[in-house]
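Appendix B. Chain record.
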Amino acid sequence: ASAIEIAETKTLKAIAVKDEKVSPIASAKYTINLPLTTMDQIFAKATEVGSNATSVEITFGNWVVSAVKEDGKTAFVTDGTRGFVIYDKDVNLGFSVGDILSGTAACKVQLYNGFAELTELKSNTVGLSVGSGGTITTQELDAAGIAALTGVNTGSLIKINGTCTSESSKYYVADVQIYTSLYDFGTLEVGAEYNITGIYQPYNTTKEMLPRSAADIEKVVGLPTATISIADITMEIGQEKTIEATITPVAAQSTVQYAI
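Structure tokens predicted for this chain:
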């Protein structure tokens, strides 16, 4: 008889027959844990928490570290649109922004506040390769794009636009909470329009984004307007005249000339 090759989870069943007598069916299940290779697979495994975290092997697909908290114990990783968090409560993970993760390594994955969190994984974990020079593309999201964000999108870099509101000393733009764990921006102006760029993460049912520096927070200032009154101007055909009009913006005064 030829050997049976098992490359995925299978249940094998067998019987023995002798002198027209048949044995009961014997059954054995063989479980093969293949490495996870996509963000969706990793997120699907994130069902337990704490001591019940799931042991996995992950083949990292040249994914990029998009942000690292100041103490080095939390790193965000993305494939551009999806991602996860790596966390250790005690030590610096050894990752830097722009690191490129490849190779296959063992770790644990758990569900934390609605996103996938990897533990027992550091930059020097056996099997993990860490390169440098990675870049990620900012996703500019409208209201529909924001509404579509879920936990699997954690770690991606997004940009949103909207009017700032405040509730319980928390700031929101386009119904996304603007959070300070990467950069403490102080206060925002309620009622003002902002373009905000930052790392996306959920907090259970709340959508959050984390600006990385002052450059990620852009207050939109409208252009000044002016009314020009023209009266009692007599011109002949082909004649040119220059009319001077003064436009007064919020903080400065400029003179614009109009040729007619």
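Further analysis of this model is presented in Appendix C.
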